[in-house]
Write a structure and sequence with these properties.
heterodimer; A: alpha+beta; Phenylalanyl-tRNA Synthetase, Chain B, domain 3; Phenylalanyl-tRNA Synthetase, Chain B, domain 1; 4 domains; 27% helix; B: alpha+beta; Ribosomal Protein S8, Chain: A, domain 1; 3 domains; seven-stranded mixed sheet; three-stranded antiparallel sheet; 21% strand
């Protein structure tokens, strides 16, 4: 969830009302944003506000203030006007971009007044958009320019880096090879995360004006020449993208916010982007969409009963200008800032928010059902109770572990063990290399972590391990295991053995007829002290005295007996 | 005498005493043939538990005793005396004197020089020699001081001397508790000793009626019982299970940690470019890397369509959808993957039958670990599928469910979740923290998730989820999740964990 920092006084002046922290917190809560933190610095009180991840229109102070001012009935929802100039500012997209970063969208804003606060907000909004919807500039990257310093038309192409010469933003010298610039920015914490997007490509995306001046080297850096300042009057916005629909969302969002600073608020000049193999794209889109809403369906879904008229005024407060149509239908206008609305259910939520979640009368669902427990979980739980009654204490250990835990530490040869394991491709630490195939390492680590606790330690766990399984649609399956260990000055094999007998007694499984033990050798266990547990002619697990090397591998100094068996055969 | 117990011997001595002025435990020890004082004190304490047989007064005093080094001084003389003794009339070279010295010779030399018994002179060859001073009377004062202390006559020595001897580590002072014992009102030489415990034998011969019994100390704790224990988190899980089944919810089979991206994300209308699908947040698998099969192709095609161009009244995400992406296996990030499978199966059953389902099981996140985040945790999830359900029903079931967890102050915040709309976050008022904390997430499943599965348009599903660890940590006041979950659990915390009574909220 993005967090937006805004100056409180600026926010309140834009809303047109001052609130106490508590009042504002409450207002945010009702609207579905969250006042996360109140901080104070040299510039006054700063609010940190959590914004839902799909509300790009709320990623700046202008957007939040507008939405809340509309919500509290201070202003009408803003309107946006697209102006068509006699000659549209054009950008020609070269086919060379198509395999690298194929899309471009542009817009022009005239007669803007960029105050220092507006400038800061513009930079912050770009940053938030880059980080969220633009997926760290991989999908979309934004460049904002002082149009008066440039000579349209523009070109967008991909060029060999050594041909790209320009002064990058806020640097004081010309760089004659863009690849060197990549090296230079390798130590820049802000830009470093984006370099990988183009660094190793044979050609870099570049936008130039008709005199060859570089506007930007997307998605990394703009040129210094056309940088925006508080004296900028006319703005050119470009966004290069690998995802065209997101590029339009980003452009609409930026334009809507910046057009507040135009002489005629909300006025945006359209531009055109010319492709070789695609139709000309006229942008920004700034489309207002219409959706029809059925009043009864909305009431039933929210669990309220309001009239069509009330619903319309509720929607207006949510920034969705609406009108009652005939026969219980409402026509809703969705402004270009609300790209989060893709279905009527999104509008229904806005009705619920406008009505107030706290005003909805809670009801229990009338749905009558008879409950049932899952049989495997129920059996595990019943057995866990009985094992605890037998004096053992339940552990709860992790399903993910290291390869070492599964192989080396248990003295299992990695060459034969590793191919049977489910392996994680991107663990952040070696503790999460594999999905475990045995519960034993977890319990041994529990013993290790509880050295000061008086002996004997008697521990158990019922939990799932994961095996490869070609029958399953995912190629892996869970298997419910039971594991118990006993550790003391002597191994106490008879205790573990007795526990097995007790479990079998509880399961009404007869010794010899249905279950038995068979001597076995396993590197995890001490020689001659290991047996397979056989249930109805199938080996369901092993028990025995653990090998002293296994114990020392897990940092355990005392002898230890263990059992690990499958539970599903007893269902 | 030998056959008498120590307490009997003490009683005998007290009987023999003419006056009733009392006798010190130290004297008693001496009179009992140099008996160990601690044993005598033990016997006195035992007699003191009897009803006014003896009276005792307790004294604490400091007693000086000699250290090992002090004892050597007594037997061989002080360090300085020994140095003086060892110097031949012709003197001795300083280096020779100090050869093999552990420190005591140097100490003795300094003292002897200070006392004027010996002197150090420089010879012509530059070497230092030690010589006895002539015409000096050498008296080993330290030794005689220590002898005085042994004889219990340290008082005339004065504090300065004692402090100096302590500093030289020749004596130490220990506090000794002594008792002055005198006869009580019920004094008798032959007291009847009370019994410690009722025995089977006493019951058989009915002797118990004639016996006195030692009083119990009710101010002490009982013995620690040996037994097995269930894990605290799993006790909470059992309680949740019982609450949910009481509310009519059936348990879903969640034993499937490895899940395809299709069921974990795509079927739930989570876009393929969603940050949750990033390698930073989700564990992807190297083996098995991809799922072996997707569900029926028509369903997969409907999912693809609703994502890319939209359907069922939705615009979709208008972005490309890759089949390779949906096949990638992951460790499931939520149990909603299972809910998706269950709902798909439900959609295949005609006619539609309303259901209420829940699950509690592990989920996995590629998180950076801290005191409240682990790479795996338990998710509690529930849903009701029926016609005519509303947000009001969701709020109603939330109030009922959380109410049974002992959480009755709730408020609901509009929220965003890719697969629910409307969505609401559940906040509970935490009396300890004195603030509202988020305890769960909920909403109505989106049509883009339900309609491709084949569920009828008028079926609405209200659903919610929360972690099991968080309410458990809040309930038991646990600050670090690692002391609750995983192998670093503190077993003593498990041993002492109380019942899980969620309806009974702890006061503090």
């Amino acid at each position: 969830m993005p967090t937006v920092s805004v100056n409180r006084d600026l926010l309140f002046s834009k809303i047109g009302k001052a609130y106490s922290d508590d009042e504002f917190d409450k207002l945010c809560f009702q609207f579905g944003i969250e006042l996360d933190e109140v901080a104070e610095d040299d510039d006054g009180v700063e609010y940190k506000i959590d914004i839902p991840a799909n509300r790009y229109d709320l990623l700046c102070v202008e957007g939040i203030a507008t939405a809340l001012a509309v919500f509290t009935g201070k202003i009408e929802p803003p309107r946006y006007t697209k102006l068509t100039p006699k000659v549209k500012i054009t950008t020609v997209v070269s086919p060379s971009t198509q395999s690298i970063r194929p899309y471009l969208v542009t817009a022009v804003l005239r007669n803007v007044t960029i105050t220092p606060a507006a400038y800061k907000s513009l930079i912050d909004l770009q940053e938030k958009l880059h980080h969220n919807i633009c997926r760290k500039r991989t999908l979309v990257a934004i460049g904002v320019h002082d149009l008066d310093k440039l000579t349209p038309p523009f070109t967008y192409s991909c060029e060999p880096p050594e041909q790209i010469k320009f002064v990058p933003l806020n640097l004081d010298k010309e760089w004659t090879n863009a690849r060197d610039l990549m090296e230079f920015y390798g130590s820049d914490t802000h830009l470093k995360p984006y370099l990988h997007i183009i660094k190793d490509l044979p050609a870099y995306p570049v936008i130039r004006d008709s005199s060859g001046i570089v506007l930007s080297l997307p998605p990394i850096i703009n040129g210094d020449h056309s940088k925006v300042s508080t004296s900028t009057r006319n703005i050119f916005i470009e966004s290069t993208a690998t995802d065209l629909s997101k590029a339009h969302v980003v452009l609409d969002t930026l334009v809507a916010m910046l057009s507040q600073y135009c002489e005629n608020k909300g006025e945006v000049e359209i531009t055109e982007v010319v492709y070789e193999n695609r139709p000309v794209d006229i942008c920004p889109k700034l489309f207002t969409r219409n959706m029809a809403l059925d009043v009864d369906t909305v009431n039933e879904t929210v669990g309220i009963s309001i009239s069509a008229g009330e619903m319309v005024s509720t929607l207006n407060r949510m920034g969705l200008s609406s009108q009652v149509k005939n026969s219980g239908q409402i026509s809703v206008q969705i402004p270009p800032t609300r790209h989060d609305i893709i279905h009527t259910c999104d509008i229904i939520e806005d009705v619920a928010i406008g009505f107030g979640y706290e005003n909805i009368v809670p009801q229990l669902p009338p749905t009558s059902t008879i409950a049932a427990q899952n049989s495997l979980n129920k059996l595990s739980f019943q057995l866990a109770n009985c094992v605890a009654q037998a004096g053992f204490t339940e552990g709860l250990t992790f399903s993910l572990c290291s390869m070492e835990d599964e192989c080396e530490k248990l003295l299992q040869p990695q060459a034969t063990k590793e191919p049977s394991l489910v392996i994680i491709s991107n663990p952040k630490s070696q503790d999460f290399q594999v999905a475990r195939s045995s519960l034993l390492p977890g319990l041994l680590k529990t013993v290790q972590a509880n050295k000061g606790v008086p002996l004997p330690l008697k521990l158990f766990e019922f939990s799932d391990v994961v095996h490869l399984d070609s029958e399953s649609d995912t190629g892996a399956k869970n298997c419910r295991h039971f594991c118990a260990i006993y550790t003391n000055k002597t191994p106490g094999f008879e205790v573990i053995h007795g526990l097995l007998d007790r479990i079998m007694q509880l399961l009404e499984v007869k010794f010899e007829d249905e279950y038995s033990l068979r001597a076995a050798e396993d590197p995890t266990y001490f020689h001659g002290r290991c047996a397979e547990v056989i249930y109805r002619n199938e080996v369901i697990g092993k028990m025995g005295v653990l090998h002293p090397k296994v114990l020392s591998n897990f940092g355990c100094a005392m002898p230890c007996s263990a059992i690990e068996i499958e539970i599903e055969p007893f269902l | 005498m030998a056959s008498l117990s120590l307490s009997d011997q003490i009683l005998l001595l007290l009987t023999k005493k003419d006056d009733d002025g009392g006798i010190s435990s130290l004297d008693l020890a001496a009179e009992l043939g140099e008996e160990d004082h601690q044993k005598v004190v033990g016997a006195i304490k035992s007699l003191a538990t009897l009803d006014d047989v003896i009276r005792t007064e307790q004294y604490v005093r400091n007693v000086l005793s000699l250290t090992e080094e002090g004892k050597i001084v007594v037997s061989q003389g002080s360090h300085e005396f020994r140095v003086w003794q060892n110097i031949p009339d012709s003197g001795i070279e300083l280096d020779t004197l100090l050869l093999g010295d552990g420190g005591s010779t140097r100490v003795g030399l300094n003292k002897a020089v200070a006392s004027g018994w010996v002197r150090i002179v420089k010879k012509d060859d530059g070497k230092s020699w030690v010589e006895r001073c002539l015409n000096v009377e050498v008296v080993d004062v330290v030794k005689s001081q220590l002898l005085q202390i042994i004889n219990g006559d340290s008082a005339p020595l004065g504090d300065d001397v004692i402090t100096d001897l302590k500093r030289r580590r020749l004596v130490v002072s220990n506090s000794v508790t002594t008792f002055t014992v005198s006869r009580g009102a019920n004094f008798s030489q032959n007291v009847e000793r009370p019994e410690a415990e009722l025995t089977a034998e006493m019951m058989a011969n009915e002797e118990y009626a004639k016996k006195n019994f030692k009083p119990y100390n009710f101010n002490a704790m009982g013995t620690t019982l040996q037994g097995g224990h269930l894990h605290p988190l799993l006790k909470v899980k059992a309680e949740f299970l019982s609450i949910l089944t009481e509310l009519g919810f059936s348990e879903m089979p969640t034993n499937r940690f490895v899940e395809s991206s299709f069921w974990n994300f795509d079927a739930l209308f989570v876009p393929q470019k969603h940050p949750a699908r990033d390698v930073q947040d989700t564990f992807f698998l190297a083996r098995p890397e991809n799922c072996t099969r997707l569900p029926d192709e028509e369903y997969v095609a409907r999912v693809e369509k609703v994502h890319t161009v939209g359907d069922y009244g939705s615009d979709g995400y208008q972005t490309p959808w890759r089949r390779e992406e949906t096949q990638r296996n992951i460790m499931r990030t939520h149990t909603t993957a299972i809910t998706g499978r269950v709902l798909y199966d439900l959609a295949q059953q005609k006619p539609f039958k309303p259901v209420k389902k829940f699950s509690i099981d592990r989920v996995f996140r590629n998180e950076t670990l801290d005191a409240t985040h682990l790479a795996e945790f338990h998710q509690v999830e529930g849903f009701v599928a029926d016609r005519g359900l509303s947000l009001g029903h969701l709020i109603g079931i939330m109030k009922e469910f959380f109410g049974r967890l002992g959480i009755d102050q709730l408020r609901f915040k509009p929220a965003y979740n890719p697969y629910t709309e409307p969505s609401l976050e559940v906040f509970a008022y935490h009396k300890g923290f004195k603030k509202w904390v988020e305890v769960g997430n909920s909403g109505l499943f989106r049509p883009e998730m339900l309609r491709p599965m084949g569920l009828p348009e008028d079926v609405r599903i209200i659903a919610w989820g929360l972690s099991l660890e968080r309410p458990t940590m809040i309930r038991y006041g646990i600050n670090n999740i690692r002391s609750l979950v995983g192998h670093k659990v503190d077993l003593r915390l498990v041993y002492s964990n109380p019942l899980c009574r969620l309806d009974k909220v702890r006061e503090s």
